[in-house]
Design brief:
eight-stranded mixed beta sheet, about 25% helix, alpha/beta, about 450 residues, four-stranded antiparallel beta sheet, 20 strands, globular
């Protein structure tokens, strides 16, 4: 069986056009500090976090916010307490807040309720104005989405995702990422993405430069409902054409064949390049859609706010363990119970997130306003972009792939410039431009539009 990353960038069927322009792209290998970060992610901690969250009985959005032992309020306060404890190791660089608001009567909200997110922000040491977000949702539900009295343990959905945020906050607190990283636990996902929408809109309204967001939702089990085990696979869902694009922009994207090169899909390709390797032990298939059929997640809130976002989810879901009252029926155990969670698997999920976040924060920002010259009929491809002014920036690269290849296959060094001509026709391949850091880290690529 091939190891993660061994063959993901090879695509025999996508062999045209034949070209020696550039060199074959190889995945970005974790550096020494990132390897250390990955080694510190501990399944025992993951187990402790999830066990504690499950102990609150229910974390339904409409459950008690004042009971110290049961309900969403107790869970919120414990998560905040944990984050604040981690922040003490950050030398003042991690700030923990609990932003909240009163949600009025709305879909799945029969009476006004306070919705609170827990947010730990680790300030970037070089480029603090650039931000990346990772989140899980800490609320739960039973079969009836309005039943806030039943036991709703939510071990997989979504204590597993919250555990990833907590463990990464702990490990990252002692580090100094170049860009800002936010570790969040959001509320009211099950009622309609209220907590993540509040966080995303807060960032949008305060002009926070969120360059990427990941939600970890249902990332706790490697076993399907038929007993099939797949403990080394993690799906990443990536939206196609952004719904926030103007009709004219969307029409142009379709005309030039850019539907598979949305910002979310470039982010997903980046994740595979930096996080599918022997250090995470994970295979990361990109699912070319926003989310699963009839389902949604907190990344949608960030996409709707105009940010780039993707969703991580386990490979095969067991629906008897989601959104179900705890019970045994016809010999089948229903309910999202602790016994069905795989802590080693979640630790590997955490490693995928850690490798992705650290690599994003360590690289320069993706090139902005990348265009390809379409005013002349030529078999060359002429590109331009805005030159970045970051301390990290060493130069730029062009990446390309055949139009039927899923991943970038070739890379061309361009230097510290903001224009370049490549002797390969834009009509025959897909191009991207990415930034290169002085430390060797590369940014996600940016797809060029005519300009």
């Amino acid at each position: 069986m091939p190891l993660p990353g061994d063959t993901v960038f090879s695509c025999p069927a996508a062999s045209w056009p034949p070209s020696d322009i550039g060199t074959l792209l190889t995945p970005q290998v974790p550096g020494e500090e990132l390897q250390t970060i990955l080694s510190e992610i501990d399944p025992a901690n993951i187990k402790a976090y999830i066990t504690k969250l499950v102990s609150y009985g229910t974390r339904h959005t409409l459950s008690s916010q004042t009971d110290p032992n049961r309900g969403i309020g107790a869970a919120r306060d414990w998560i905040a307490e944990q984050m604040r404890e981690f922040a003490t190791a950050s030398d003042g660089q991690m700030e923990v807040t609990v932003p909240s608001y009163i949600q009025g009567v709305a879909s799945r909200i029969p009476s006004p309720v306070r919705i609170s997110d827990v947010v730990a922000t680790l300030k970037g040491s070089v480029d603090p104005g650039r931000t990346y977000v990772v989140s899980g949702h800490y609320d739960t539900r039973c079969s009836d989405v309005l039943d806030y009295t039943c036991d709703a343990p939510g071990a997989d959905d979504d204590a597993s995702g919250v555990a990833v945020s907590l463990e990464l906050a702990r490990v990252f607190a002692t580090r100094r990422p170049a860009a800002t990283i936010v570790f969040a636990a959001v509320a009211a996902e099950e009622q309609g993405l209220y907590g993540s929408n509040f966080l995303a809109q807060t960032y949008k309204n305060t002009s926070v430069n969120v360059q990427g967001m990941f939600t970890n939702d249902i990332t706790g089990s490697s076993t399907a409902d038929d007993g099939t085990k797949d403990p080394f696979t993690l799906r990443i869902f990536a939206q196609g054409s952004p719904t926030t694009e103007s009709p004219a922009r969307a029409s142009l994207r379709a005309q030039i064949g850019g539907e598979n090169d949305s910002p979310a899909r470039e982010l997903a390709r980046f994740v595979v390049e930096v996080a599918e390797n022997n250090y995470t032990q994970m295979n990361i298939p990109i699912i070319y859609r926003l989310d699963r059929f009839l389902r949604g997640g907190d990344h949608s809130s960030f996409l709707d706010a105009g940010f780039t976002a993707c969703r991580f989810t386990e490979p095969n879901e067991n629906f008897a363990h989601q959104h179900q009252n705890v019970r045994v029926e016809n010999g089948t155990q229903y309910g999202d119970l602790l016994e069905f969670v795989d802590f080693d698997y979640i630790a590997r999920v955490g490693k995928v997130n850690a490798a992705s976040l650290w690599s994003l924060a360590s690289a320069p920002m993706s090139p902005q306003n990348v265009t390809v010259n379409t005013t002349l009929l030529t078999n060359d491809s002429q590109f331009s972009w805005i030159m970045g002014n970051e301390t990290l920036l060493a130069g730029y690269e062009a990446v390309w792939r055949p139009t039927n290849a899923p991943f970038w296959t070739h890379v061309i060094p361009l230097g510290l410039v903001n224009t370049a001509t490549v002797n390969l026709s834009k009509d025959n391949v897909i191009f991207g431009i990415r930034a290169v850091g002085k430390n060797g880290y590369r940014s996600p690529a940016t797809f060029p539009f005519p300009g």
